[in-house]
Amino acid sequence: MPQPTTRSPATDHPAPAPAGLSLEERLTLVNTTMTMRLDEAAVAHGVNTAHIETDPVDLTDIVTVPLTPALQPQSPVYPTPVAALLQRAHHRLLTGGWCTGALVDTDGSRCLYGGIRTEARGDHALEAAAAAVLLDAIRRQFGDDVESVPALNDAFATGRVPIRMLDQAAGLADARGI
């Protein structure tokens, strides 16, 4: 009967395979040894990093697709007026550009409110209802500290989050039937 071997930290090499084992048996032994070492390393990593606080990553900010209109699938149009307006504003910002600090910049890009105002086409009641639903969607995501739609729009350097909020607001308006 073979004697158990101990590993010293200075020579952390696996014990040699006993003679007389077939190739498959030696591969199984090495696989088992490596799996055990990887499991020990994973536990050690978990213990060593347990004290580090991390925030969850929102993958929608990381995983992106090209924002060119030709590559965007055309989503079905919402049947309710406020949801359809928010959806049109979302599409306008995707295709025409997003800006901060102005309703419309010199390139024709629009902020969140500028996109809603343009797509409302003068219907102030519809514009106000869409802005209210958008603000509600924003506060659901970011809390009641957000004062207004322009405040959220101007808080970001890129348009990914603000444009995504328009899409979420359109879904919210559709769920409410408005």
3D structure, described in words:
The protein is mainly alpha-helical and 178 residues long. It has 2 domains: 14-54; 59-176, no CATH class. The chain has helices at residues 23-49, 81-96, 112-120, 124-142, 149-154, 160-176. Helix 2 runs antiparallel to helix 6. The longest helix has 27 residues, at 23-49. It is elongated and about 90 Å long.
Summarize the structure.
The chain has helices at residues 23-49, 81-96, 112-120, 124-142, 149-154, 160-176. The protein has 178 residues and is mainly alpha-helical. The chain has two domains: 14-54; 59-176, no CATH class.
Descriptive terms for the model:
2 domains, 53% helix, single chain, mainly alpha, 178 residues
Shape: elongated
Q: How helical, in percent, are the residues?
A: 40-55%
The profile of the biggest β sheet is: none
Alpha carbon gyration radius:
28 Å
Determine the N-to-C terminus distance. Answer: 80 Å
Proportion of beta-strand residues: under 5%
Q: What's the assembly state of these chains?
A: single chain
SSE run: HHHHHH
> Which stretches are poorly predicted, pLDDT < 50 over at least 5 residues?
none
Mean pLDDT: 84
Structural class designation:
mainly alpha
The figure for the number of domains is: 2
Specify the number of helices.
6
Number of strands: 0
